[in-house]
Amino acid sequence: xxxxxxxxxxxxxxxxxxxxxxxxxxxxxxxxxxxxxxxxxxxxxxxxxxxxxxxxxxxxxxxxxxxxxxxxxxxxxxxxxxxxxxxxxxxxxxxxxxxxxxxxxxxxxxxxxxxxxxxxxxxxxxxxxxxxxxxxxxxxxxxxxxxxxxxxxxxxxxxxxxxxxxxxxxxxxxxxxxxxxxxxxxxxxxxxxxxxxxxxxxxxxxxxxxxxxxxxxxxxxxxxxxxxxxxxxxxxxxxxxxxxxxxxxxxxxxxxxxxxxxxxxxxxxxxxxxxxxxxxxxxxxxxxxxxxxxxxxxxxxxxxxxxxxxxxxxxxxxxxxxxxxxxxxxxxxxxxxxxxxxxxxxxxxxxxxxxxxxxxxxxxxxxxxxxxxxxxxxxxxxxxxxxxxxxxxxxxxxxxxxxxxxxxxxxxxxxxxxxxxxxxxxxxxxxxxxxxxxxxxxxxxxxxxxxxxxxxxxxxxxxxxxxxxxxxxxxxxxxxxxxxxxxxxxxxxxxxxxxxxxxxxxxxxxxxx
Length: 513
Prior knowledge:
Elements: H1 14-28, E1 41-47, E2 66-74, E3 81-82, H2 85-100, E4 104-110, H3 118-121, H4 125-141, E5 146-150, H5 168-181, E6 189-194, E7 219-223, H6 255-264, E8 272-277, E9 279-284, E10 291-292, E11 302-303, E12 327-328, E13 334-335, E14 340-342, H7 343-348, E15 362-367, E16 372-377, E17 382-385, H8 389-402, E18 406-410, H9 419-428, H10 439-444, H11 468-476, H12 481-497, H13 501-511
Parallel strand pairs: 1-2, 1-18, 2-4, 4-5, 5-6, 6-7, 7-8, 8-18
Antiparallel strand pairs: 2-3, 9-14, 9-17, 10-11, 12-13, 15-16, 16-17
Helix pairs in contact: 1-6, 1-8, 1-12, 4-5, 8-9, 8-11, 9-11
């Protein structure tokens, strides 16, 4: 990304993202200095239960700074954290490989099905001390560098049978303070996975001051995925970059709104890592979108996909082979399939070709509000909200522009040939490559199998010089006339609001980017 004092040279489309970022930073950090660390966090979770399909040997260790094993889980006993026997066997190898490659090895505690007992474990001083001993013992036993707390969710119900208490958030802070003061804990990388919204206070309202957490946590990872849709409106993006342009009844959080709320609550931008999904959510539509039979230039007939297509919330089809058929959950409730597709699963299940273009019979649409793509199978009626290299590049550009700490991908095994990982690394951490690198050289650094998003790459003259974030965002953007016109209009408005060079220079100096 070009520095702010050269912002007039931003490619079309990124002006709008830049302005939204500036608005968020100004609203939440008036007069404060937002600094960037020298190293952008490149993190992913590795799931032990997928180790057979995605063995440790296939992890691109050299592309990460941190990897977190998922999961250790809470138990009814305050002094015990549980690991699956298979995880206990593989975890030493995971840590060893991480250290051999200069990667910090952590373990994530909790998760959707493993957060039942967090609340009682931090409720009393005695219990907190017991939990500190349990997690530090786990760290020492496996030579871990970090502990990641994925409590879903303090003060709120998650899976349905978690213990919940009004003081969960303040008790969680007390636990983390004790852990940070522990002789082992003081040397660990401590992080927490969070919702788009800040943790709630004792009244159940979103907290407005969580600044004390920034003193004990190295960073938080905002889980900007699994964003719900409103059946009365239609299927929306499950991982939107922006939702300020969405109707209120369809706005359930986004990367931009999350960063704005968390920084307003006192979490410094450079201690925020953006969670990004390597998977998508599917919906079974209740009606077939209109087909324009006079135009069949795409891989499927020219279907006019509505922004929020109607779907049946009571019908869920199985996604890819990692999705499963459902069954009894930890609460004893019967669940169906999740309807999720990993990026590689979209290829295996016939939604995408290996080069990332839509397969035959599949319609593609890029939503300029959420900045995420969708797919629609005209034969099965299944609609998928997912992320591709274009949306990853745009999220990476936002991470870099906003001065965030980095990104965290769920999960490492969901990608295909590292196409998503390569895209976001280049976009959010352009210091990985010389700023004067040519576009041709830039794309040569990506794997031969790295696909473009649907639509042709924009051609640049040989030797054209662009930063990686700028080049990727330009190169992957679809060149439909409608998309271009909308971006030009938004960019014109953005430039009009931020056209004063001294203002941009001052902001550039404040953010130290």
